[in-house]
């Protein structure tokens, strides 16, 4: 009863462990297993479906207790400080390795794998945080982070299983999205610290590519983090500040100082994870945990001990086989990672047979707006017209001011004894000074806006062709997208590579199936009944005979493992022939993606261009009005200044004495008088433009 209503603390863990140990003692003595004489119905509720599941098998009770022990450990781990590397995976691992997976769907092999790797991943996260806080070496932190990624990748594989998806329902998508986000995030952390290590080793080219990769992976994590709590968003923003700053600084330093070649990421050694966390062990026969055996007198201990010894022999056999499988799997995984060959995407020719959905969406949007290009061109033409009008008005104002200044300078030269210094014009009238000031202000604004206007026209010219293409027939859009051209030999190389990749997957699937069969055989292999009737001296012989039942499946597994070398050799040869095709396909795919992105960018730029064009029209329309008013004002001020100059000249003429009688006048010389600097007072001169030699006083005529 205490184990059913267990408190959620470490005392609860102790209660579950004790009960589990006593059940182990009980089932080894009393026939309470499936279809045995003393079996009783045992009912538990599945955590995900809410259904009540009943089995007449004491092992089902043990399995449920183990599951709850793992769950309680995980809850306590979530509440504890994030500094311990111990985790809740131990109970789930023992449950997966020692109990049938058919009791209920939430105890399936995939669900247990999911739980185990989620627990290991979170424990490794705690260790990663501690390592970063302790300022451990960058390479060690990178390896710890890479191991977090490995654990979460295993969890993601379990989540992608159809059985897992049907069991978890809606939360499967949420969990998968969160796990994928963590995979990208901790991959970014790993490459961040690899970049820091490269920095410490003064490998500045490697530093740039690692930081760039970290930035790319972090961007993927941010995409997957939509809907996550604000604390997650804040952490991602903080990480973006760190990685973005590191990348920008590293790139700038390399571009301007070090000039090291930036290698491709796939040419660098991959970061191998360092699994440093440990699952809390489960030992049902540990007296320090389970307490004294309360059923010790019910069954001869010899049979129980012999059964335990046989279980250990089975476990040893499984460990030996699994060590070989894992070694081969590691080689296979590393080989496939280095090849970077995904059977799903190695042949992406289907992609080029149709327009991508995002481009179809833009074409459809433009099809209901047929005047898109026309409107943009007209808008820019109107803007150019207003721009030209403003420029003409400002030029006319400037010309008026320059003309007025020239007239004023001439007047001053005629009236003054010494001409003004070069380059310092006479002060204009107050009205013209105000016009000049406003004109300068408008010219400055116009020059700044002129640059923006030029940039806007450049942007329009850049996008107008793409917008015309998107507005046209879909056949033209499709024709504008690049597509690969493969020879028959290229196609044969591609088909051969796909066939061998299929063999690799077939080998993987067969290996997994054989491993599962072996586990199930070991799980069901119970010789307790035989042990009770077997003499102690014959136990070893009985074990040897019983273990022979595994020979056949071991042979199949060894054949599968031996075939790996030949399969990988064939794959290597096929990949060498595929290299040229791969390069060509990669180049076409890059051009395809670039073209699609360019067309989409042109569509998205349309609204912005229209908005900026309208803003430009509004701005120049306002400036045109102001310039027109200023032009009228300038004309009026110039006329007033000219009238003022005429009055001054008329006054000067009136001051001249009447001419005395003289000898007959020579023929009139209409050429204006040229005066040398100095020698005349301002009062001696008639109005500008009216001087002739015969009208001069006698004393001036000699000049």
Automatic annotation (TrEMBL):
Annotated GO biological process:
early endosome to late endosome transport; endocytic recycling; protein transport to vacuole involved in ubiquitin-dependent protein catabolic process via the multivesicular body sorting pathway
Provide this UniProt record's keywords sorted from A to Z. Answer: Coiled coil, Cytoplasm, Endosome
Q: Which domain of life is it from?
A: Eukaryota
**Pfam family name, one:** ALIX_LYPXL_bnd
> Which intervals of the chain form a coiled coil?
387-417, 497-524
Query: SMART domains per the record?
Result: BRO1 (SM01041)
User: Where do the segments described as Disordered lie?
Assistant: 647-690
State if Zinc-finger is listed as a keyword.
no
- Cite the InterPro entries for this sequence: ALIX_V_dom, BRO1_dom, BRO1_sf
Q: Where is the BRO1 domain?
A: 1-332
| Cellular localization per UniProt | Cytoplasm; Endosome
Keyword field contains Cytoplasm: yes
Gene Ontology CC: endosome
Q: Where is the composition biased (Low complexity)?
A: 677-690
Q: What is this protein called?
A: PTN23 phosphatase
Q: Which organism is it from?
A: Fregata magnificens (Magnificent frigatebird)
- Gene encoding this chain? Ptpn23
């Amino acid at each position: 009863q205490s184990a059913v209503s267990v408190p959620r603390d470490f005392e609860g863990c102790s209660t579950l462990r004790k009960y589990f140990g006593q059940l182990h003692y009980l089932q080894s003595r009393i026939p309470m297993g499936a279809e045995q004489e003393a079996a009783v119905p045992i009912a538990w509720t599945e955590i995900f479906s809410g259904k009540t599941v009943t089995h007449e098998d004491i092992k089902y009770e043990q399995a449920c207790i183990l599951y709850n022990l793992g769950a309680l450990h995980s809850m306590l781990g979530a509440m504890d400080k994030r500094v311990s590397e111990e985790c809740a995976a131990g109970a789930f691992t023992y449950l997966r390795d020692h109990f049938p997976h058919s009791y209920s769907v939430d105890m399936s092999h995939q669900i247990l794998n999911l739980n185990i790797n989620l627990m290991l991943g979170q424990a490794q996260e705690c260790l990663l945080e501690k390592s970063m806080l302790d300022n451990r070496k960058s390479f060690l932190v990178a390896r710890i982070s890479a191991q977090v990624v490995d654990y979460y990748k295993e969890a993601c594989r379990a989540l992608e299983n159809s059985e897992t998806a049907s069991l978890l329902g809606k939360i499967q998508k949420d969990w998968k999205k969160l796990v994928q986000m963590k995979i990208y995030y901790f991959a970014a952390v790993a490459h961040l610290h690899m970049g820091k290590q490269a920095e410490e080793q003064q490998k500045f080219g490697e530093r740039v590519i690692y930081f760039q990769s970290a930035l790319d992976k972090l961007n993927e994590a941010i995409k997957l983090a939509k809907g996550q709590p604000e604390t997650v968003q804040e952490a991602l923003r903080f990480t973006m500040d760190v990685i973005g700053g590191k990348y920008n600084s590293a790139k700038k330093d390399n571009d301007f100082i070090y000039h090291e070649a930036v290698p491709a990421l796939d040419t660098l050694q991959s970061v191998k994870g360092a699994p440093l966390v440990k699952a809390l062990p489960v030992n049902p026969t540990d007296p320090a945990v389970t307490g004294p055996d309360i059923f010790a007198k019910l069954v001869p201990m010899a049979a129980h001990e012999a059964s335990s010894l046989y279980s250990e022999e089975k476990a040893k056999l499984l460990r030996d086989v699994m060590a070989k499988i894992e070694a081969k799997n590691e080689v296979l995984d590393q080989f496939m990672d280095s090849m970077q060959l995904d059977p799903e995407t190695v042949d992406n020719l289907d992609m080029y047979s149709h327009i991508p959905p995002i481009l179809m969406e833009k074409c459809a949007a433009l099809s209901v707006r047929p005047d898109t290009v026309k409107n943009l061109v007209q808008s820019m033409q109107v803007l150019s017209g207003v721009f030209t009008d403003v420029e003409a008005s400002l030029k006319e104002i400037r010309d008026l001011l320059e003309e007025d200044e020239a007239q004023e300078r001439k007047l001053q030269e005629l009236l003054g004894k010494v001409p003004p210094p070069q380059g310092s014009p006479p002060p204009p009238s107050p009205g013209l000074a105000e016009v000049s000031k406003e004109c300068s202000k408008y010219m400055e604004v116009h020059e700044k806006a002129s640059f923006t206007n030029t940039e806007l026209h450049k942007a329009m010219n850049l996008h107008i062709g793409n917008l015309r293409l998107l507005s046209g027939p879909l056949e033209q859009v499709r024709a504008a997208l690049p597509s690969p051209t493969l020879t028959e030999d290229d196609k044969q190389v591609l088909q051969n590579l796909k066939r061998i990749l299929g063999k690799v997957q077939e080998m993987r699937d067969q290996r997994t199936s054989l491993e599962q069969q072996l586990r199930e055989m070991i799980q069901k292999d119970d010789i307790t009944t035989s042990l009770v009737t077997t003499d102690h001296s014959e136990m070893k012989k009985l074990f040897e005979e019983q273990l022979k039942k595994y020979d056949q499946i071991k042979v199949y597994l060894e054949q599968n493992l031996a075939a790996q070398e030949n399969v990988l050799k064939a794959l290597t040869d096929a990949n060498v022939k595929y290299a040229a095709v791969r390069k060509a396909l990669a180049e076409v795919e890059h051009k395809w993606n670039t073209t699609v992105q360019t067309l989409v960018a042109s569509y998205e730029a349309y609204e912005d261009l229209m908005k900026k064009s309208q803003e430009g029209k509004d701005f120049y329309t306002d400036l045109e009005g102001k310039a027109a008013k200023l032009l009228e004002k300038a004309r009026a001020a110039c006329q007033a200044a000219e009238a003022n100059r005429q009055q001054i000249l008329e006054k000067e003429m009136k001051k001249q004495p009447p001419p005395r009688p003289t000898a007959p006048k020579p023929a009139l010389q209409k050429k204006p008088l040229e005066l040398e600097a100095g020698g005349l007072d301002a009062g001696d001169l008639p109005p500008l433009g009216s001087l002739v030699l015969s009208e001069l006083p006698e004393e001036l005529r000699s000049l």
